[in-house]
Structure formats: structure tokens, C-alpha cells
Amino acid sequence: MLPDHLLSWMIFFPLLGAGLILFVPKRYPTVMKGIALAATIPPLWWAANLYVQFDRWGTGFQYVEKVPWIRAFNIHYYLGIDGISVPMVLLTALLSFICIIASWNINEHVRGYFALFLLLDTSMKGVFCALDFFMFYVFWELMLLPMYFLIGIWGGPRKEYAAIKFFLFTLVGSVLMLVVMLVFYFGSVEPATGLHSFDLTILADQSVHQAFLRSHTIRWLCYLGLFIGFAIKIPLVPFHTWLPDAHVEAPTAISVILAGILLKMGTYGILRISYPLLPDMAREFALFAATLGLISIIYGALCAMAQTDLKKLIAYSSISHMGFVMLGMSVFSNTTAINGAVLQMFNHGTVTAMLFLLVGVIYDRAHIRDIDSFGGLAKTMPVYAGYTGLAFFAALGLPGLSSFISEALVLVGSFQQYKIITITATTGIILTAAYFLWTMQRVFLGPQNKKWADLPEISLREAFTLTPLALIVVLLGFYPMPVLDLIGATLKHTVAMVVG
Amino acid sequence: MTNLIDPLHMKNMLWLIPCLPLAGAVINGLLGKRLPVRLVHFVGCASVFLAFLISVAGFFTLLGIEEPHQRFLIQPLYQWILTVWHQGSFSLQVAFRLDPLSITLCLVVTGVGFLIHLYSVGYMAGDESQARYFAYLNLFTFSMLLLVLADNLLLMFVGWEGVGLCSYLLIGFWFTDLEKAQAGMKAFIVNRVGDFGFFVGLMLLFWTLFEGSNGTITGLGFQQLRESIPLLNSASPILGVGLATWIGLLFFVGATGKSAQIPLYIWLPDAMAGPTPVSAFIHAATMVTAGVYMIVRLNFLYVIAPAAMAVVAVVGGVTAFYAATIALTQNDIKRVLAYSTISQLGYMFLAVGVAAFSTGIFHLVTHAFFKALLFLGAGSVIHAVHSNDMLEMGGLKKYMPHTYLTFMAAYLAISGIPPFSGFVSKDEILWATFNSHLPVAGLGKALWALGLLTAGLTAFYMTRLVALTFMGGFRGGLEKEKHLHESPSVMTFPLMALAVLSVVGGVIGLPAVTHLPNLLHDFLGPVLSSHGASGHQAHAYWLELLLMLISIGVATTGIYLGWLFYVKRPELPGKVAARFAKMYQVLEQKYYVDEIYQALFVRPLLKLVALSGRFDLNTIDGAVNLSSRVTAKFSFLIGWEDLKIVDGAVNGLAEIFKRWGAALRHLQTGKIQHYLYSVVLGIFGLCVFMFLF
Q1: Is there a contact between B612 and A299 (Cβ–Cβ < 8 Å)?
Q2: What are phi and psi of B306, to 5 degrees?
Q3: Which of residues 341-400 of B touch A (CB under 8 A)?
Q4: Could you tell me if residue B670 is left (phi over 0), alpha (psi between -120 and 50 degrees) or otherwise beta?
Q5: Which of A11, A266, B522, B618 is the most exposed place for a label (fewest CB within 10 A)?
Q6: Domain total for chain A?
Q7: What's the CA gap between B251 and B257, in Å, rounded?
């Protein structure tokens, strides 16, 4: 049985859990954790149902809910999903559930942690379902708040620095988005009512843009503003330096959410807002965006190889992998690349979640993450080594695992439009193999380091968080159609719209 | 011939060939630790044996189809990838293709593979992680069969990298030895360089055909590629070089990685760190021949790219010679065999480079027999001596008669003594090279001469190997000598089976002189675009016979010299080495290529890596921190914040942190609930307010 207003339920159910947690007495931390877990299960179930029931052939928005919210500014409570949102919502629901389990060992300020986490969950799902620019912005900002505290309170030794850096970077992006949002609001008039509008589906109709908004300079600036705002989130080089710091300091589950979902908001924002609102500029910026994607791929990989902190290495690898998404999204001559890009958003979400969970496992035991201080761990923790091996090979794009399909589609698709860029990007697969295997060797292979000889093997709880992700990674490697099927029609429409 | 098996049934069973070993890998990989070791062995061997039986059935099914051009079965399994746009689509299926070429490889992979699995039962006895070993070996068999049976290029690439993964895992099987682990890593990364070429070739091929056909080409299926390949000729050249040549060369880059040719061969000698049956299976009989298979699979592309073919032939011929010279001086028995493998693979590329595709496959098959046997024999020796160093061997003939006898069969085969299989296939390559029509005049004859010289070197270094290992007296010390023993029959049985194949394997590709049909060539015919060089030619039997005699003469000379150097007058090698000390050292150090690559590629890359890391930390992040400092200073100037505190701060941000930290400390003393209450209540309040508004 599915409730009416499915999306609203899915978005706000975790918030109900957060509210409930606030009333649990302090001496029952396990109850709080239980409530948090319970608050993520129904949304996961609903998301799974969404996945099944979503009409693959429809190009419009589905499960739409629209009611006036703030009449004075013609703001609507407007939700709906298309093929791009569904995998993101599903990923969010899945990772939230997994991350609550992965957070089970949080023992300070339990109430605050789980309440903030659920608030974060709500705001993320909100971003992926919002169709009103204002509402999108509200959810976007709302995300910032719990994230800031989750890093700043439960983080590592340099948590304050990392948290404020994250905050300031994202704030810059938000301000830019806010300005562009207002430009669009005042620059457009809904023909039916004569009112200004925040409705993304209406703003996408180029005929509602007023003369002011038709000026090339304004459009160019708007696109640039949005692009920088989203590029910070993705993050593209050179807007990326908040990411390694945030990741290193954030607790495990928050790193998972950060890399698994928050980064996708950047590329999602481009697909949801920049492309529909400014398709002409999307074409104009395509080469620039593809180049930044390429730079992120190569530069991210080179920097990853330079790291000695395992978590930082994975943070830089995220930059490199998200570069593939940007590259693929910048191709409009076919849909192969953009399909690869959105698939990569999903695949990177699962793979990088595994990677950060795995780093958490070793950090919880050894309390260090220095790559060179380990060695021979495969002997000590063979199952852990097995999971890590799978995640590493998935991350380096081994055929048969999910990321290969998405990266291959991005490369194959991009080749049609950008030969040199794509060939250079393809060298990225060599670098990626090099740093992951080198890390594998330094941490797991070679003679057993006696210092770590009695580290306990991965626990059942930890294995439980990893296994569903591992299964998805293998399944989508051999059979990616479940996702490609979902996103194909929408992306065909997106590309057609950008090409005009 | 009547059909014993309905082709339709066979078609529906194709998936079992790769998936049986996959099932074995999954069972042993996930449950192996809890299974009794005998069951692990059973699962590992039986899965491959069953795949072999199905392959045999497939072979006879194909033979049963009367019309040779109808001899292919395609089993589409499911839609793999599909993206659609207005002007076209990119659509790939997971589909298996059984045709004369793939069945030949299937038989080798599962047949030789089964023998090697069996041998491993004895070789790995007592190892604590046998389940892992058999899981990897089965996974390799699966990947290799996927590579061979794939009906499109991208699926082939999945198998192509899959075998690379298994190679990585098995080279570093004893991973607590850092050197072995590093060898695995080196293999994977060098292969990735090759895969880069493969993948760029794949993209260029698809889009050239796509644009040439106005979007009607939608996939990379081999049938479709073969039919549309002429479109490449009408595409405008890049930098004055035709598209077919570019694509052929890019794929060949992939082949040089996987099949260890110049310049990417350097991983193979190090790969000998893996267990010896792995070297036999992966690094001699099957995986390393994937490059040859790929080129033969794409023969329709190469025949319209004569320049690419010439490059293939030259690289193959030069590699054959080059690797043979290194093999002359190595003392590690497996390394000699590794360089020998590189050299023999060079012969195969020479064959396909001169369009003698079926001959290349022929040598692939016979080489799989005799080289697997040589490795397994070496493994048997290592098993007894517990060393790879030939200087610690000698006189093993007496202690290991079965190993010795079977080894001799393979030795005679690789040295090119008739009628052993290696002679027949190698000679056919030389004959085809002699007769080839390469775009550069005289190149064919030059490559023939090089191949002939290589044959002589091969006979010489193999004689040296046999002499150092089996002849003379034992040099490993008395203590070891006491423990010398023949290997158990589970190991010697595969040796004998392979010995029989090494002796008689030549019958499938008899030369024209015999006036008997060249079975393999005729069988592969429908897959190949060109029937030329290796076919039965009506003329020049006398020439073929003459060349054959010359090559027998060269082989015999090689053997004689080897015998003279290492049996008759064992003081000679030292003298020669002293006489040509410089050259000897260069050979012994393998032309310093590893060192050169280290200096040319690895070190600059590591420098670039360090530079990027520093640049990111100092410049980009430095700029970020600087801007925050400037902002803080600026705020000081306008007196926006407490002057004293900001003044004292070195890092402008530090103060903000401190303040935040202080604020957070307050939160940590119990006020966080308050904060959260206010956040949540605030949001609720806001929502309620908004709705009412």
C-alpha cells in the first residue's frame, strides 16, 4: 500500500523521526538509533516502489504534487520526479539507511547526530524532488546546516576548519544561485496569470523570459553563476579544495553521504536547472565544461596518487570520477555520453560509498589512515581485503563492475564530439588503475605488518552495510539496463531540448 | 556428416561454456574456505571439464553444418546497453558467438585449461589458500572464454580486462611477498596502457562507421562490423593516414600489452612470480595469445589496412628475435621460458601480419600445447628442486624420468624438429612470411631471415635449458639431492597428455608439400577474409621444401651448438661471455629496458604526481586560505570585528574557528538540544507560517 502524496511522505518521513528523537530521554541512545533506522526504512521501501512503478516511457514529471505555498510570491509547494530524479532518490534512500547502520558506533551526542542526520536526509530528497526554484533553493540551503554541524561536531581533529571551509564554499555557490534565481523570477512572466514565477517547468519555457532575460550577457552571466555554484558542489577543479578537507574530518557516514549524494547535487542541479532554463548557454558552455571535466579527471587522479591519507586519496578520486560525469553531460550530439554521466552519478554513489565505509572500518580499528603505515592487511583481514578489492576494482573501472559501463559510455559518447579531450580523458583510466593498485599494494599486500596483526576482521554490521552496495556494483556491471532503462527517455528529451 | 546435436540446442547451451567455470569460481570463492579441499579441487576441475565437453559438442555441431559459411551459432542472452537519440542509437547485447575461430580457442582454453587445473591439484597441494587459487583460476577461465566467445567488441573488452584482473590476482597470489605483489601490479598497469589503445580504437571504429553509415550502425557486433568495414575507406584520413590503419594500429597497441610484444612486453617476465601452473595457463597458453586472437577476429579490418599489417609483422618479427636473444643468458628457468613465450608470440604476430591468419592460430594452438608442457615440466622440476635457478639444477633426468621424457617432446617441438607440432606451425609461418606481399619491397624476405635466425636461437637456448636442467650432475647440493623425486601422477598425467599433443598437434595444419589437407586452415576459412599466404599454393613445392630443409638445418645447428656449449664443452659459455663481456651484460640485463622505462615514464610521472599534490596544497588551497586571510584583514581595517583579536591571528580564519569552536564547545556542554529544537521548531514554524500566509 502506498500513501497518497508519496513524494512528500518520502521526503518528510525522516523529519518525523528526527522530531521523535528529540523527545527520547538521554539515557536511551539505542532507542534514538532505532528510531533513526526506522525512519529510513519506509522511504527506502517507497523509493523501491517508485523505481518499479515509474513509467519508463514518460518524458514528463510523475508523482507531481503542486499546491500554492507563498501566494504573495507565487511560490508553490511543487514536487515531481523524472528519470534523472528516480535513481538519485533511490540512492539517497539506500545510502541513508546504510549510513544509519554505519553510524551505530556514534556515542557522543547521539540525539543531535541522528536528528541532524535525518534532517539532512529530508533536505537531500527534497532537492531531488523539488520543481519550484525557490523550494529547490530552500532544500539546498537546508542541507548545508546539518552538514555543517555533522562535520563540525562529530568530525576529526581539524573539524572546525573543514566545516567552515565547506560552509563558506557552499555558501558562495548558494549566493550565486540565489541571485540567478531572483533574476529568473523577475525576468519572467507566467502568461496565464501575469505573475512572476519560480516554477521550473514554466521557466524552462523560453517564451516566458522577458526582454531583460533575453540579453545574451545576462544569460551568459546567469549561466556562469549557476555553473560556478554547481561546480563547487561537484566539485570541479579548481573549486574543489573544500572536499578533501571535509572528507578527512567528517565521520564515516557523513563522508559517505557527502561523496555519495551531495556531490551529485551539483551535476543534478545542472541537469535540472541550468540546461532547461538556459539551453542556449548550455551549448555555449559545453566545450568549457567538458574541458573542466577533463581537467578534473586527470588532475584529480594525479593528486589522488600523491596522497598518503587513505581518505584524502578517495576524496581526490571522487573529483576524478565526477569529472567523467561533467564530461559526459557536456555532449549533446548523442545521448550515450549523458546516459553514461547519469549512470555514473548513480554508480559513483554506490562505489564511493563502499570506499568510505571501508576506510571507516580500518580507521575504527587502527585510528590512523596513513597508507604507508599498513601492509599485509590481506593476511590479517581477508574478508575486508576482499570487499576493498571489489570496491577498488569497481572504482578503477574494471569491466564487469558498474563504473566501467558508465565511464565507457561517457567516453564512447564524448568521442563523437570531443576527440582530443576524450582521448586524453581515456588516459585517466591508466592513472586510476595505477593509484588504486598502488594503494592496494601498500595497504594489503606485502609482508604482514606485525603492529596490525591482531586487528579484528570486519564485523557483521559492517559487512551488512557493504553487501547491498557490492551486489549492486556487480549486478549493474553485467546488467546496467535497470538504470539505463529508467533514465533513457528523460535524457533523450533533455538532449533534444538543449539542442533545440 | 550427420548432426549428432541439433544446432539449435547447441546454440542455447553456449552460455554454459563460460558460465560453468564462473559458477566454480563463485562456489570456491565464497564457500571455499568451508569446503573440504577435495571438493574444492573437484569443483575447480569439473567445471572446466564440463565446459570442455560442451566445447567438444559445439565443435562437432559446427562440423555437422554442411555449408561452411553457415558454421556459426549466436546466442543472444540479453540487452546489455541501450542509449537512443534522434539520429541513432548505441545498442549492445550480451551475446555469444560460436564459430570456427572461437571454438578453436574454446577447445584450447578448456582442454589445456582442464589439464592445468588437474596439475594444480598436485602442485598446490598443501597450500593454505587453495580455494582462493582455484576460484581465481576458474574466474580466469570464465574471462578468457568470455573474451573468446563475445559477439561484440565491448563484451570482448570485458573478457580482455577480466583476464588481466585474474592475471593480476594470480601473479600476486602469494601476496605477502612484496615482489610478487608488485609484479602483479606492473602487469595490470602495463596492460592498461595497451587497453587504452584498444579502447580508443573501439571508439574511433564505432564513430567512423556510425558517421559513414549515417547512423545505421548501432553497435559493435562482429557480423555488423565485418559487413560495414569498407566504409572506413571512404572516411577522410587523419594526418594523412587512413582510418583503417589508425584503428588497426590502435587495436594492435592493445595486443602488444596483452600479448607482451615490444614495447609493452616488460610485464611478462615479472609475471613469472605467479605459481607455475598459472604461468603455463595464463602466461603461455591462453591469455597472452588474446592479442593474436583479437587481430584474427578483426582480420576483415586488417586486410584493408596493409600498413597496419606491416607494422604488426615487423613488431612481431623483431620481438621474436629480440626476446630470443635475452632468453640466451637468463638463468631462471621460468624467465627463459617467459622470454621464449614473448618470442613465440612474436612469431604469431608475424604470421597474422603477413595475412596468414590461420597459420597464426595454428601456431597459437601448438604453442599452447608445447609451451604449457614446458612450463608444467619446469613446474615439476621446481616442485622437486624448490628453486628456479638452473644453476642449482642438473642431472634431473635420472630422478624425474616422466618429466624429462615429456619435456623432451615439448623441447623438440619448440626447437623445430620435424615432425613435432612446433616445427610444422613455425615452418608454415616462415613460409608465409617468405611469400608475403608486404607494402615494402624485400620486407617479407628480411622478416623471413629474422624468423629463421630466431629459430636457430630458439633451438640453442632451449638446448641450453634442457642441458642445465636435466643433463650432467646435480648442482643443488647433497641435501637437496636426497629429496629429489618424480612428481605425483596427478601432475605427470597432464604432462603426458600435453606431450602427445605436442608431438602430433601438427596434423591439423599440414603443409602443402604433403598433399594432405590443411584441416585448420580449411576449418577457419569462413571466418577469414583472405585466403592467401598459408593456403595450398599450386606452385613452388620445391621452394617450400628447400626452405623447410634450411630451417631444419638451422634448428639442428642451434641444437648442436647448444649441445657443444653446455654438454660437450661446458667451459665454452664462460669463455664466450668473457670474450663478449659488454654484449653479454647487456643481454643479461635485458637491454636495460626496465631501467629505461623507469627513467622515461615512471619517474617523470611520479614527479608530476608530487608536483600536482604540492600545487593543490600550496597554490589552489593556498589561494583559498589567502583570500580568507585577506578578508579577515579587510574586516580588521574597517573595524568590523574586535581589533585586538584579529590583529593577533596569523591565520585570519583561525579566529573564526576559535569562535566557532567556542560556540561549539557550548553546544557540547548540553545546549545542543536547544539548538536542534530551535532548528526543527523553526522549520516547522516557518512551514506553518508559509502555509497560512
Answers
A1: yes
A2: -60, -30
A3: none
A4: left
A5: B618
A6: 1
A7: 10
Written as nine digits, the cell of A449 is 605488518
Dihedral angle at the C-alpha atoms of B155, B156, B157, B158, nearest 10 degrees?
60
Q: Hunting for cell 615482489 — which residue is that? A: B179
**Residues of chain A contacting residue B161, judged by C-beta atoms under 8 Å apart:** 398-400, 404
Mutate to test the interface with A, among B19, B28, B173, B175 (most CBs of A within 10 A): B175
Write the DSSP symbol of residue B69. Answer: G
Could you tell me how many CB contacts below 8 A there are between chain A and chain B? 198
Residue labelled with grid coordinates 593528486: A303
| DSSP tag of B599 | I
Which residues in chain A show pLDDT less than 50? Answer: none
**Amino acid, single-letter form, for residue A141:** E
Q: Where are the alpha helices (DSSP H) in B1-72?
A: 7-13, 16-31, 37-64
Nearest to B413, CA basis, from B469, B453, B373? B373
Strand residues in A331-484 grouped as ranges (E): none
Helix, strand or coil for residue A156? coil
In a domain? residue A74:
no
Q: In A, which residues are within 8 Å of B675 by CB distance?
A: 112
Cβ atoms of residues B506 and B423 within 8 Å: yes
CA dist B115 and B491 (Å) reads 9
C-alpha cell at A94: 539506500
Q: If DSSP states are collapsed to H, E and C, what string results for B507-528?
A: HHHCCHHHCCCCHHHHHHHHHC
Mean pLDDT by 10 residues, chain B (693 residues): 72 93 94 91 96 94 88 93 92 94 95 95 90 95 96 95 94 91 93 95 95 90 92 86 93 95 93 93 94 95 93 96 93 94 96 93 95 94 90 89 93 92 93 88 92 95 94 85 87 93 90 83 84 52 89 95 89 87 88 90 91 89 84 67 47 55 48 50 57 51
Asked whether B435 and B533 are in contact (CB, 8 A), the reply is yes
pLDDT of residue B371: 95
By Cβ distance, the residue of A399, A427, A478 closest to B157 is: A399
Q: Do B85 and A335 touch (CB under 8 A)?
A: yes
CA A198 to CA B91: how far, in whole Å? 39
Which grid coordinates are listed for A325?
560525469
Whether B630 has its CB under 8 Å from any CB of chain A: the answer is no
Asked if residue A274 belongs to a domain, the reply is no
Question: What angle is formed at CA B57 by the lines to CA B420 and CA B428, rounded to 5 degrees?
Answer: 25
Which residues in chain A are closer than 8 Å to B176, comparing Cβ atoms?
376, 379, 445-448
Beta strands in A75-224 (DSSP E): 75-81
Give the pLDDT score at B666. Answer: 47
Pairwise CA distance, residues B555 & B531, whole Å:
29
pTM tops 0.90: yes
Which residue type occupies A413? G
Predicted pLDDT of residue B671? 44
Render A251-297 in DSSP notation, one character per residue: -HHHHHHIIIIIHHHHHHHIIIIIHHH-HHHHHHHHHHHHHHHHHHH
Three-class secondary structure assignment of B546-587? HHHHHHHHHHHHHHHHHHHHHHHCCCHHHHHHHHCHHHHHHH
Which domain does A441 fall in, by range?
286-500
Domain annotation covers residue A122: no
Amino acid at site B531: H
The nearest alpha carbon in chain A to B159 belongs to: A399
Q: Round to whole Å and give the CA distance between A50 and A86.
A: 7
Which of A73, A372, A440, A448 to mutate to test binding with chain B, by most B CBs within 10 Å of its CB? A440
Q: Do residue A71 and residue B195 have CB atoms under 8 angstroms apart?
A: no
Biggest alpha carbon distance in chain B? 107
Distances (CA, A) of B535 to B394, B519, B525, B540: 44, 11, 10, 13
What's chain B's length in residues?
A: 693
| Cis-peptide into B263, omega within 30 deg | yes
Amino acid letter for position B366: T
